Amino acid sequence: MLRFAPSPTGDMHIGNLRAAIFNYIIAKQTNQPFLIRIEDTDTARNIEGKDKEILSLLNLFGLLWDKLVYQSHNFSHHQKIAQYLIAKDKAFYCYCTKEFLEQKREEAKAQKRAFRYDESWAEIHKDSNPKPVVRLRGAREEIGFVDEIKGEISFNPNEIDSFVILKDDGIPTYNFACAIDDMLYDISFIVRGEDHVSNTPRQILVRKYLDYTKDIGYAHLPIILGESGSKMSKRDNASSVSWLLEQGFLPQAIINYLIAMGNKTPTEIFKLQDAIEWFDIKHIAKSPVKFDIKKLRFINREHLKMLNESELALLLNTKDASVGGLAKLYLQEASTLNEIRDKIDSIFAPKDIYALYEEQDFSEPCEILYKAFVALMAEHSPALREYGALKTELMTRTGLKGKNFFKPLRILLTGTSHGLELNDLYPFLQLFLTDIVRLKS
Ligand code: GLU
């Protein structure tokens, strides 16, 4: 079984989504079930409703799961296993007070050495501290694993000291719950962010003490850098999956981009289904990758181009395929749904003919042209049916020509003074003239 294990403690980051995509693809490639495990062990940091939000995003991206579990439902298993480890002397109660440990940490810092928990401290405060934690005995030998992206990684025993597996309220820590659940659900391979590399030996150690012999494969994904070249943080808008969707990037384009990042792909534009055919986690580059929004825009536009008019119309919240046709034309200029929406909104908005366009005042010819246009509409003039005829008729009636004709015409029809060929737009615009040719009061 493969799994994606989000914590409901914040917005879904593109790094999380990338891990979800890769785990999903590998599950499909190897015909194994895909588990979503909501890791709600950090009860203080859990945010109400985040689990649902994450699930609906996964659903939107088409990363459908075969099984869903909440880690908290397994707490009683975690606690029983902790008791079993205590009985086997692989884990022990630690009564140290927080103040004592803090002081030891300070001492280590002052002496410029890494803090390591010393098992001889375990019972120092046994009489005064009624709420012990449970710690797993630190490693006695080297622990290593082969990472499919980073290669062989190993840790000295002194790097893995006795760590907490149950907090003083009996709630398991992330490392413990994760190690146990990966075992209980028979996980075979784990793709996750490289911030978890140092957790891996701890999780391996838990299972080793339980004599679990199945080797779980690992691939830790390099971090994603922001445009500035430093680690993409929550403050970088583009790191948030919801933000990208709000900007009008399509889920299939985001997936395409996240798979292509730091990877060699047979084609530049592809769908999730295609990637299942050829994806190989070993091809993901070891070095951090920079998030490139320009590239994502390019990919998004290509995916928008693959949609037909009715599909585009639906994404723009209308059933009218002609709006979809208009949207398709705007793909010459726009790369996201929001950019298309802006163009279309500008067409349907009442026109402000008294504003300056390219720093020029076109209000007078606009007024003249508007009157002539409205008259044609009132007459149901056949000239309205075709752009060439419309132009000739309006020029004749108004006497306007050149820039004084074309700029006002464009302003009345699109709300801007530049853009796509009116000749191309008009077949769609003529269907909605009464909604389009109107002035802002
Ligand atoms: N809950 C952890 C996270 O969101 C999961 C890490 C893992 O995949 O083990 O970072």
CATH topology of the domain at 2-69 and 224-296: Rossmann fold
Overall pLDDT:
96
Q: How many E-type strands? A: 14
User: Low-confidence runs (pLDDT<50, min 5 residues)?
Assistant: none
Structural category: alpha/beta
What Rg, in angstroms, do the CA atoms define? 31 Å
Strand order of the largest sheet: 1-2-3
Which percent bin holds the helix content?
Answer: 40-55%
Count of alpha and pi helical runs: 18
From the N-terminal CA to the C-terminal CA, the straight-line distance is 63 Å
Q: What kind of sheet is the major sheet? A: 3 strands, parallel
CATH class descriptor name of the domain at 2-69 and 224-296: Alpha Beta
What ligands does this structure carry? glutamic acid
* Percentage beta strand: 5-15%
The CATH architecture of the domain at 2-69 and 224-296: 3-Layer(aba) Sandwich
Describe the global form: elongated
- The CATH homologous superfamily of the domain at 2-69 and 224-296 is named HUPs
